[in-house]
Design goal:
The chain has 597 residues and is an alpha+beta fold. It contains 14 helices and 31 strands. The two termini are 56 Å apart.
Amino acid sequence: MIDKIRNFSIIAHIDHGKSTLADRMLEITETVDKRQMKEQILDDMELERERGITIKMRPVRMNFGYKNDQYILNLIDTPGHIDFSYEVSRALKAVEGTVLLVDSTQGVQAQTLTTLEMAKDLGLKIIPVLSKIDSPLSRIDEVKKEIVQLINCSPEDILLTSGKTGEGVKELLQNIIEKIPAPKTTSENQNDFRSLIFDFQYSNHRGIIVYTRVFDGFICAKDQTKFVASNRNFITPEVGVFVPQEKTVSKLSAGEIGYVVTGIKEPGIANVGDTLLSLKTTFPALSGYKEPRPVVWASIFPESQDDFTDLKSALSKLKLTDSSLTYEEETSGIAGRGFRCGFLGMLHLEIITERLRREFNLELVVTLPSITYKIKTRRGEDVMAYSAISFPEFGDIDKVDEPWVNIQIILPNQYLGEIMSMLYEHEVTIFETDNWGNNRSSIKGEMPLRELMRNFFDDLKSCSSGYASLSYELSDYRSADVVKLEILVAEEEVPAFSRIVARHRVQEEAEKSVEKLYNILPRQMFTMKIQAKALGRIISSKTISALRKNVTQHMYGGDITRKMKLRDKQKKGKKKMQALGKVNIGQDVFLKMMRNE
């Protein structure tokens, strides 16, 4: 049975046709009925379908007949965006091989290189595949040369497919069976059951459901099992596979990928990378995953403090479906109680906050994203500042260190000059350029993570008309010359708008933020100042005039003193509002400031 199983994933840069190829595989293997088939069938999250990207990995089991034998093909569909590379790394550890999918119209991209290195490090069998060969813009021969150079294979080894028409997909399935090795097991004894948890989700009725790859033995319903890391025992209510919806089976055996219902409803028991063992086994735990390192930090507060408990519960449930999310409680004197959350990138931050609003109906205040700074104060204290809120005041700081990243950009040669100017603006130090042939170049360099978060990806796409691609990885900490920029509305600090900027850019950023807020903040019934504060002083300011209501419009004729009394009363009321008034900033204002719209 185990020799008829093939476990594989598909790795590709974003928008290279991965989800479409998975759709055709499900059609050809008749895993999904034609009447139920739809585009991006494995992307069942509303946000995934809206944006046309994969956010969550999805396992699916397919049956395929080849040379008079029936094979079980377990595919784990993975995201393509760099912010979700942790999802990819977890999927790769649960399989024996991977399909390296490259768009024949675009060629090898930077993110392709990152995921390919992960697969090589794990010793996986790699099957190179070109997609979109039916496109009139396809450059099959040129892109083939790039792949040959990349993985040192023969041009004949590269398969040609079209997810749109289905051309070459059947041949790809046959190649998966022939080239990807069958899983290996140490024991098929039930008492030696051992499996790796690569994902999980939460159900209000069934508790935690773990997604697992079985390496040894087998597990059935009502078996006694334990989590190694938390040392928690449980009796399994149900086991099953994904086709792609959940389907209950009698047992999960060595080599198979499926789910195990635990019935546990407490948080913190299940962990990605943990091992499931039968109570009688003497096998050691499997090696798990490295903990993800957050790249971007942002503080999330409920708009009403009454929703704090709901926000805490929502984050704990999201953590079950997205283990790369980190959070811990924090308190702000102005915003109240909330959570400091760590994300793998700007898109990851945007997706999580959007899911909190849609799936849990929460109104949130999200601070502008920040990174981690190591600060030495003048009193000799060491401070880790995860956000502008926790950044010490000007005058208390002796030294600041910030994280840097190593970057790689692949781009067409005609955009090289414009991109070089953009890199200079973002403080990039270039240490290697390479001509890839086919009118394309590669640039390797290093830059402050702060600058990467400052619209770098958008600027890169803009300079290259969308053709350049980027991959990056965290490097070390280096000395930084940065200051805290605070935004005050009606002379009250708004923590969500505070951020850390380079000292030489602080005046420009202050004026830009004040101008932007001036244009998007609704007028109030009283005069309102918008100010930017840095270096211990106000460095930019604009005033929004008050809305005026004509309190005498209902009057006509008569003594002028009647109108003067009403206007006097209005004037006193506005003065009182200005002294006591608190500006209620709407959620759309926070979103526009965060997205740099």
